[in-house]
Design brief:
46% of the residues lie in helices and 16% in strands. By secondary structure, the chain is an alpha+beta fold. It has three domains: 117 residues, Butyryl-Coa Dehydrogenase, subunit A, domain 1, CATH 1.10.540.10; 108 residues, Beta Barrel (Butyryl-CoA Dehydrogenase, subunit A, domain 2); 150 residues, Butyryl-CoA Dehydrogenase, subunit A, domain 3, CATH 1.20.140. The strands form three sheets. A four-stranded mixed sheet has the order 1-4-5-8, covered by helices on one side. The chain has a four-stranded antiparallel sheet with strand order 2-3-7-6, with no helix packed on it. The protein has a two-stranded antiparallel sheet with strand order 9-10. It contains ten helices and ten strands.
């Protein structure tokens, strides 16, 4: 079997390296220095425009929408580069939301959003944390049809609406996005995805802050009426979007871990104790080697999950087991990597003039976003019990 990336995937990664080359993770102040305020009032618009100009916002879109028609593997290669520089852009959320609309949305919704999202003119994000950050996101919001004609909600010609009520917490980029994809559940237990405009009546935002100091939002829906054309009811849409978001988050964690281990290696090779670089000490070398093993495990499980998502049409192959395994290694691995980096850097690692403290904060945010490894191990065990290996 050939495990090398395709020429198109490698070209996307190379373009991303060029765009992110000038991004400095220590170019914004520490959250501690801003007394709890967000480190930035907006996404990095200059970087966003550069990503759009390099066609990196439309990787997953097909040619009819101005995209490259690539897959989840290509997106994860680009996200890996974004994670390495802590890029303050909704690249993952915008790409995943647009790809879901393309795969599952109706023609009116696709025409309204996709081309503009691929050019960076419309920003999309996703509410995926649920009410508390621990419960299923689709259970945090109820959705009911309000269609006097009884027309199917996803028909392009339907004039009906859906009514949404509930709360989603920790929504990234909610204040900057034009539309938020909100998962919700119906009375009969189905999951739907509503494309909610930020300024729509019945939609309210309240500021929240992540461990990185970035501004998130609590999204409150009170009888928000969503046109039927903006609600995706196709089976599997939310499951596929959730898997793509999780795998993309693993890619961000991998890029962050790569950069942190490189920073640690460079520091340990220069820092001397007793007349020798500390990298030559066995205790230091063993810790660094363990973190390298973590990175390689994070990498191989990431590409397995991304390949599974990219194989065939969305939902054709079950990806939940591979995604769970990637999340286990990413959430545990990125935590161990930054903890070891802080330990080996000593007091220098806590210096706010050195970027390691920002990587530590972002790693904690990614770890919390992915959820605890124990929960994913339990889910993986349930899958193996239901589908025993031959």
């Amino acid at each position: 079997m050939d495990f090398t990336f395709t020429e198109e995937q490698q070209a996307a990664a190379e373009a991303a390296r060029g765009v992110f080359a000038g991004v400095a993770p220590d170019g914004v102040p520490s959250p501690a220095l801003t007394q709890g305020a967000a480190v930035a009032d907006d996404l990095d618009r200059d970087l966003w425009n550069k990503l759009a100009a390099a066609d990196l916002l439309s990787l997953l879109l097909d040619e009819t929408s101005g995209g490259a028609g690539l897959d989840a593997v290509a997106l994860c290669l680009v996200l890996r580069e974004a994670g390495a520089v802590l890029a303050r852009v909704p690249l993952l959320e915008n790409s995943a939301a647009a790809a879901t609309v393309q795969a599952y949305g109706g023609p009116e919704l696709r025409a309204a959003l996709l081309a503009r999202a691929g050019r960076g003119e419309t920003v999309l994000t996703v509410a995926a944390s649920g009410r508390t950050g621990h419960d299923a996101a689709e259970l945090a919001v109820t959705a009911r049809q309000d269609d006097p004609d009884g027309a199917p909600a996803n028909d392009a010609g339907s004039g009906g609406t859906w009514v949404l009520d509930g709360v989603q917490t920790a929504v990234p980029w909610a204040y900057e996005a034009d539309h938020v994809l909100v998962p919700a559940h119906t009375a009969d237990g189905r999951s739907v995805l509503a494309v909610v405009a930020r300024g729509q009546e019945g939609v309210a935002l309240a500021p929240q802050f992540s461990t990185t100091g970035e501004r998130l939002a609590q999204l409150r829906l009170e009888s928000a009426r969503i046109p039927a054309r903006d609600v995706i009811t196709a089976d599997g849409a939310w499951d596929w979007l959730r898997s793509l978001l999780a795998t993309g988050t693993c890619a961000l964690a991998l890029g962050l871990g790569d950069r942190v281990l490189a920073m640690t290696s460079d520091y340990a090779g220069k820092r001397e104790q007793f007349g020798h670089p500390i990298a030559s000490f066995q205790a230091v070398a063993v810790q660094a080697a363990d973190r390298y093993i973590d990175l390689r495990a994070m990498e191989v499980t990431l590409w397995q999950a991304a390949w599974r998502i990219a194989s065939g049409t969305p939902g054709a192959l079950p990806a939940s087991g591979d995604v769970a395994l990637a999340k286990i290694w990413a959430s545990e691995g990125v935590r161990r990597i930054v903890q070891t980096a802080q330990h080996l850097h000593g007091g220098f690692g806590a210096d706010v003039d050195y970027p390691l403290h920002r990587y530590h904060a972002w790693a904690k945010h990614l770890e919390l976003s992915l959820g605890p490894a124990a929960a994913h191990e339990e889910a993986l065990g349930d899958l193996l019990a239901a589908h025993p290996l031959a």
